[in-house]
Every structure is written in C-alpha cells, then in structure tokens.
C-alpha cells in the first residue's frame, strides 16, 4: 500500500509543479538594445515577486503529505513494531510540522528585518559620561 501511495504522491507532485508553472504569468521580456544592469535587476526583482507565495504553497502541501505519511508509519509501527521502527513515523511528523511552520517563520523574519531596503544600524556612542569627580 505504501508503494502505491508513493507512486500516487509522485504523480501528484509532478502534476502540481506543472500546473503551478503553467498558471504563472508569462515573462515580460524586453527586446531592446539598451538593456543595462538596472533593467536586468528590475526584471529579476519582478520575476521573483511571487516566489514567497509559491514556497508557502509548496511547504503546506509537502507538510501535509509528510504528516499523513508519518501517521501511516505510526500505524505500521503499531501493527508490527519489530518491522517498522517508531522513529520513521516521528521523523516524518517532525518534518511535516517544520514545513507547516516555515511560512510563519518566514513572515516573522520579514517583519523583524523589514522589507524597506534600509539597513538596521547599531546604536552609535557619541559621548561617554561617567560622572566621576
């Protein structure tokens, strides 16, 4: 049963990636002779704007898959503990949980660092006054 499920999972993953790539916007290539570095950088920036959403969707889908496979491995362990170790199911459940938490961690990282493009600078010490007499 696991082999059939693994084959179906691989087919689903392939169909998901193909559908994701096919549904994206077409690249807006500019065929001019005056392309410079700023045009290239702007095109790259515009091309990867939707990358966080794609990473979020993929991490949720694979996290869900890993959770289901982890529960199935735990079921196999309960039915036959000598053949299926408990760590197999636990590892899959932990990986699924980590993938579910990835978008939340990414969002909190962006909120902490910021997306304005300005750098966070340390506080500057202009003068030290120790009040010594």
Task: Give your account of this protein's structure.
It is a single chain. The protein is flat. The chain has a domain at 52-111. Helix 3 (51-79) runs antiparallel to helix 4 (86-113). Helices cover 68% and strands 0% of the residues. The protein contains four helices and no strands. With 133 residues, it is mainly α.
How are the elements arranged and paired?
Blueprint lengths: L1 H22 L13 H11 L3 H29 L6 H28 L20
Helix pairs in contact: 3-4
- Largest sheet, strands/sense/barrel: none
Cα end-to-end separation: 83 Å
Number of helices: 4
**Percentage beta strand:** under 5%
> Which geometry do the CA atoms define?
flat
Arithmetic mean of pLDDT: 78
How would you spell out the order of helices and strands?
A: HHHH
Radius of gyration, taken over Cα atoms and rounded to an integer in Å: 24 Å
Give unreliable regions as ranges: none
Instruction: Compute the number of strand runs.
Output: 0
| Proportion in helices | 55-70%
Which class best fits the helix and strand makeup?
mainly alpha
């Amino acid at each position: 049963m696991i082999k059939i499920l693994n084959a179906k999972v691989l087919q689903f993953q392939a169909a998901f990636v193909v559908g994701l790539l096919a549904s994206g916007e077409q690249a807006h290539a500019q065929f001019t002779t005056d392309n410079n570095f700023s045009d290239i950088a702007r095109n790259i920036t515009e091309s990867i704007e939707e990358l966080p959403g794609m990473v979020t969707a993929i991490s949720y889908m694979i996290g869900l898959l890993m959770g289901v496979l982890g529960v199935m491995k735990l079921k196999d362990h309960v039915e036959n503990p000598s053949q299926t170790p408990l760590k197999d199911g636990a590892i899959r459940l932990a990986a699924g949980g980590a993938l579910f938490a990835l978008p939340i961690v990414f969002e909190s990282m962006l909120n902490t660092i910021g997306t304005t493009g300005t750098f966070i600078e340390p506080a500057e010490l202009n003068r030290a006054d120790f009040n010594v007499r």
